[in-house]
Amino acid sequence: MGKENSILILGSGTSTGIPIPRCSCSTCTSSNPKDHRFRTSLLLQTAQGSNILIDTTPDLRSQVLINQVEKIDGVVITHDHADHIHGIDDLRPFCFGPPLHPIPLWTSQHNAKTIISRFPYIFPQLLSEPPPQQLGGGIPLIELHQIELKPERPVKSTILGEKFWHLPIPHGPYGESMASIHGAFAYLTDISHINPATVNYLKSLKLDLLIIDCVRDRPHPTHLDVPTAFKYIQKIAPRRAGLIHMNHDLDHDQLTKRAQQVDGVEVFPTYDGQILKY
Ligand SMILES: [Zn+2]
Ligand SMILES: [Zn+2]
């Protein structure tokens, strides 16, 4: 057997991160390090030795320092919310080398548009009216690759020589998040509903590992709640399922116990620094 692919959870928390500043609830004041959650992101380390970062959170700098990430060969962006892209500037140390080199970034056409409009100083060459040149500090060098997503149909991309499949999944009534599948791993963060065709497709993959949104107990307008995440996990039937994007209503140890009661699948809350192989 060859080397395995591996996932490093860089952040497992919702958009505020946990602890939430000024909150004194039991999760935010917990002494369990697994209740400390940076904004949701992961590093995929392929069996071939490439490091692919999924999402550039506002915690990116701390995440790469704590986990001693030495290189980022490519980036995938799931969607354009602040908690998933506002750390994009912290890619700078990874492109400055030496030698200076651009980092390729893959995302949907919709997300690419937002990224360019929100960070115009990074993409002067793509704009008809480039903003004044950024002086001091420099800009991350990003080579943008746009993926043309199709509703309910996975599309293929080749990222650093690796085959990926992507499909859009609703993230609330107005948004969508780009799900990615690599081998027997599927990543579905920031989703609120999975339509039956996508559930069937994911089930047909016989996944080894699914990482899926699970924000809190009560229903949420743009995320999966715990019972709904469990329901989809049972339908998709991977071997293992990790929960991600949790808020402070969810205590790691309590959620671990509840997740163990899901029939037929090994379910667990992910935590920052966790390594999972597939
Ligand atoms: Zn998010
Ligand atoms: Zn989001």
Please give a structural write-up.
With 278 residues, the protein is of the alpha/beta class. It contains seven helices and 14 strands. The longest helix has 11 residues, at 226-236. It is globular and about 55 Å long.
Number of domains: 1
Distance between the termini: 12 Å
Tally of contiguous helical segments: 7
What proportion of the residues is helical, as a percent range? 10-25%
CATH superfamily placement: Ribonuclease Z/Hydroxyacylglutathione hydrolase-like
Number of strands: 14
Rg (CA only): 18 Å
Class computed from helices, strands and strand pairing = alpha/beta
Task: Break the fold down into its secondary structure elements and pairings.
Elements: E1 6-11, E2 41-45, E3 51-54, H1 60-66, E4 74-76, H2 82-85, H3 92-95, E5 103-108, H4 109-118, E6 142-147, E7 155-159, E8 162-171, E9 175-182, E10 185-188, H5 196-204, E11 209-213, H6 226-236, E12 240-244, H7 252-259, E13 266-269, E14 275-277
Parallel strand pairs: 3-4, 4-5, 5-6, 10-11, 11-12, 12-13
Antiparallel strand pairs: 1-2, 1-14, 2-3, 7-8, 8-9, 9-10
The site of one zinc ion has 4 residues, from loops.
